Structure formats: C-alpha cells, structure tokens
Amino acid sequence: MIQVRLMTADDAEWAAELEQKYFSAPWDAHDFVHDVENDYNIALVGEVDGERAGYVCLWQVVNEADIANIAVDEKFRRNGLARQLLMTVMEQAKAKTVDTFFLEVRESNVPAIALYESLGFVQIGTRKRYYEKPTEDARVYAILPEVTK
Fold first, then answer.
1. How many CB atoms lie under 10 A from the CB of residue 67?
2. Geometric angle at alpha carbon 47, from 99 and 82, rounded to 5°
3. Are strands 41-48 and 2-6 parallel, antiparallel or unpaired?
4. pTM above 0.85, yes or no
5. Closest to 114 in 3D by CA, of 73, 77, 63
6. What is the pLDDT of residue 147?
7. 43: helix, strand or coil
8. Does domain 2-143 have CATH number 3.30.465.10?
9. Which of 64, 104, 130, 136 is catalytic?
10. Lowest CB count within 10 Å: 61, 109, 112, 113, which one?
11. Can you state the angle between helices 12-22 and 29-37, rounded to 10 degrees?
C-alpha cells in the first residue's frame, strides 16, 4: 500500500543516499533538511508497505512552483508511486495558491516524460547542456494556469 507523508529531517540521509544511486549531481542531506525547514518548499516521502521508497521536493515562489527533484527507488518503480507523489505535492501546492508548475527532465528519460505528460505537463522549451555527467539537454515542462479572454 502506498502512503505519502511530509519529509522530516530524519529522512534527509536516506534521501541523499537515494540521490547518490540515481543522479549524477546528487543533493546532500543538508539540501533535504533545507527543504524540510523552508515554509515555501514542500518535501514528501512515499512509502510502500511502510518502507521509504521515493520522495519529491517542490520549491514555491509566490504562485509558481518548481518540481525540484523526484526519485523512486528502482525496486518500487512501476507501481504508481511517482504519480502519487507528484499529484500529492501539486495538490498541497495548489492549497498554498500555486497555479503554475515547472520542471526539467533529461531528454533521454522517456518514462519520466511520459508520466509528466500524462499529468498535463506540456513542453515549453529546452535548456541546452543543462545536465552534466553525461552532458544532456533538458526539456522544460509546465502546467500553466488557463487564460480566459
């Protein structure tokens, strides 16, 4: 069973270890503690059957938010956890007046791109050579508020 909860400082080392496994420029535990302690950020942990399995971090500026990072441990992938983490963090951000969401994703990360597009994100640009180790472009995605005329 999937459960999503707020990240605490006690989760920081675990999240940093997950970062080391999957990211070429990983955050450290201090980065996660900062997200937990900042009122404008939302950091969530997803658990599967009581075991920590993934996390998402969102940074808010006024009515906009950036999905700063999301990771799911490989043994827990393909069970809907990433989708649940994203939907939950976006619901919480909307409750704090956020109506615009952004994120960057490696062009080669086809599963993540499919997930983001299924949630309504649309590509609005590209950041050349955004990622390192290996160098790769990032697709910039957004969910923008509806504009009425």
1. 24
2. 45
3. antiparallel
4. yes
5. 77
6. 57
7. strand
8. no
9. 104
10. 61
11. 130
57 class by beta-carbon count within 10 Å (0-12 exposed, 13-18 middle, 19+ buried): buried
- 65 CA to centre of own chain: 11
Sheet containing 100-106: which strands, arranged edge to edge? 2-6, 41-48, 51-61, 64-72, 100-106, 136-143, 122-131
Domain limits, the chain: 2-143
pLDDT at 133: 86
The single residue of 116, 130, 131, 132 carrying the catalytic annotation is 116
Residues in the chain: 149
Query: Is 104 in the active site?
Result: yes
pLDDT of the chain along its 149 residues, tens only?
Answer: 999 999 999 999 999 999 999 998 899 999 999 999 999 999 999 999 999 999 999 999 999 999 999 999 999 999 999 999 999 999 999 999 999 999 999 999 999 999 999 999 999 999 999 998 899 999 999 999 875 44
Q: Are 141 and 121 in contact (CB under 8 A)?
A: yes
Reply yes or no on whether 51 is catalytic: no
- 56 membership: H or E segment, kind and range: strand 51-61
